[in-house]
Amino acid sequence: MNKLKIVTGIPHVACGDGHVAGLVRIEPTDILPVFRSCGTGPHAARLRRVQPLEAKEWLYITAPENGVEVAVADLMILGPEVKRFENTNDLFDRIASGAGLRDDGDYDWSAMHVEIVRRVFEEGLPVSQGAWIRELQDWFASRTDDGTFPDESSIRTRLIPILKALKFKHPKR
Prior knowledge:
- Helix content is 35%, strand content 19%.
- By secondary structure, it is α+β, with helices and mostly antiparallel strands.
- The strands form two sheets. A four-stranded antiparallel β-sheet has the order 1-2-4-5, with no helix packed on it. A two-stranded antiparallel ribbon has the order 3-6.
- Strand 4 (49-52) and strand 5 form a beta hairpin.
- Mean pLDDT is 84; it is low at 93-102.
């Protein structure tokens, strides 16, 4: 499935004999007018059906009878869904080739692994995966004459097995 799943949070509603509350998937075409790019559409719409995140079937809201109002600002795309969409559609590879970045094979990935070990040994883990990726991009840029560096997806692909091996958890803030 190559479409992004849009979710929102809803209060407790009745769906026939069952009840639903919390994060649910919505079908964007059900509230299509709120997506008008010209700015003339409404800022909110009424949901009359929802899909609990782990469910396969859509549920129709029976109470409140007129559904649940949802505003554009209430709509979300969850992080794992964004990552799935990026990987499924090779977004970073297309962006990287069009942005003048070097081919993946031109980077010294072995040296990056040495830098990762040095970083963990001397400084500990960074606060987040994103922060670490940015650090590594800066590290690559500092090692080239033209400041080029690999795209985020290429670094993430090589970093994730290391994070899993370290059982990486975000530090408490």
